[in-house]
Amino acid sequence: VDEKAIADLNDLGFNSVRVPFNYKLFYSGGQIVDDGFEFFDRVIEWCRNYGMYVLLDMHGAPGYQNPGDHCDNVDSNANQPRDTVKFWDGDNVQLTSSIWRHIALRYHNEPVVWGYDLINEPVPQAGREFE
C-alpha cells in the first residue's frame, strides 16, 4: 500500500480501505513490538488526507488460523485437514489478543480507523465445529 494506491481508490469513489497484515509486524523475538505502527501510521495519514477510513485486518495470526497460504501457514496447502491449523493451540489465542490490545491502545481514539477485522477467515478447531 502506498499513497498513490489510496489516492486512486479515492478517485474511484471508495471511502475505505482494508489493510491486511501479519501478526509479525507486532511480534518479534518473543516480544510484542511497535514495528508495525510506522506502516499503520503512514496508511492512516494517507487515508485522513483523502477522507477515507481504515479497517485493520489481521490476515495472518499466530499459528495460522486456516490452512491457506495467505495466513502464515508455512505448508501453503488449502487442502490440508483442519487439524493442521495451530491457532487454537498453546498460547496463540492469548498472543493474538495481546497484539490486538496493543494496537487498540494506540488507535482507540483515531477516527480514521473505523474497525478491526480480528482474524481473517478462521476455521474452528478440528472436532469442535458445532460446539
From TrEMBL:
It is a single-pass type II membrane protein. One of its GO terms (molecular function) is glucan exo-1,3-beta-glucosidase activity. It is found in: Cell membrane. One of its GO terms (biological process) is cell wall organization. One of its GO terms (cellular component) is cell surface. Residues 3-124 form the Glycoside hydrolase family domain. It comes from the Eukaryota. The keyword Lipoprotein does not apply. Pfam families: Cellulase. Its EC number is 3.2.1.58. Gene3D superfamilies: Glycosidases. Keywords: Cell membrane, Cell wall biogenesis/degradation, Glycoprotein, Glycosidase, Hydrolase, Membrane, Signal-anchor, Transmembrane, Transmembrane helix. Transmembrane segments: none annotated. The keyword Cell wall biogenesis/degradation applies. It catalyses: Successive hydrolysis of beta-D-glucose units from the non-reducing ends of (1->3)-beta-D-glucans, releasing alpha-glucose. Glucosidase involved in the degradation of cellulosic biomass. Active on lichenan. Belongs to the glycosyl hydrolase 5 (cellulase A) family. This is glucan 1,3-beta-glucosidase.
